[in-house]
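Q: I have 227 residues here and want to know how they pack in 3D. Can you give me a structure?
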Amino acid sequence: MKKILYSMILGIALVSCKNDQKNEPVVEDANTKEYQKIAEANGFKEFDDVEKIGFTFNVKVGDSVRSKRHWVWNRKAGKISLTENDSVSSYVKKDSLGDSEKSIDSKFINDSYWLLFPFQMEWSNAKISDPKEATAPISGDQMKMLTVSFPSEGGYTPGDSYDIYYDDDLMIQEWVYKSADGGREMATTWEDYKNYDGIKIARSHKNKEGNFELFFTDIEVTKNKSE
């Protein structure tokens, strides 16, 4: 997030793989908010059974891969491990982190938000608008849109917001990142969805010009073993 592309990449406040499955309809409740329906459509309830998740976060600008980070998140132990540039580091998620741990944590928050943003809407303290009809910025299609705004204080990038464009199946198709100071804005797609044992993940995000792609590889989801 050094220039506009990297600002967007780091701009979020911060094994078993099944074949693609059809989206299961979300059972609606009168009290269920739209963002909760999106989370559930992406497998939010299934995530309760996830013990460990691994993934590689990649950023490609033009023909050059600028970032490549592999993560293993052991949810049961609260341990997060990072492999980057042949170096391995880890920390245990807790309320108080040292400076070196914060450096790793800020990367993990960013990368995992891209991976699991539908769930982050449930987990975070963001303010989320009611949905409305809007024109998606890249495809030009009419979709439903809601805005996710993070608090102006706290987190690694306070005050940033995202316009989320999603289809009738409650799958995010595009989003627009907006920095808190209004100086940076960028839209990317959400595509190449795959179902990982009930967890639906968009593996590719591209800008309109096609010279930027943020994508995930090596995704592994391990669920708790049945007693």
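Q: Anything worth noting?
A: The chain has one domain: 4-223. The domain at 4-223 is CATH 2.50.20 (outer membrane lipoprotein receptor (LolB), chain A).
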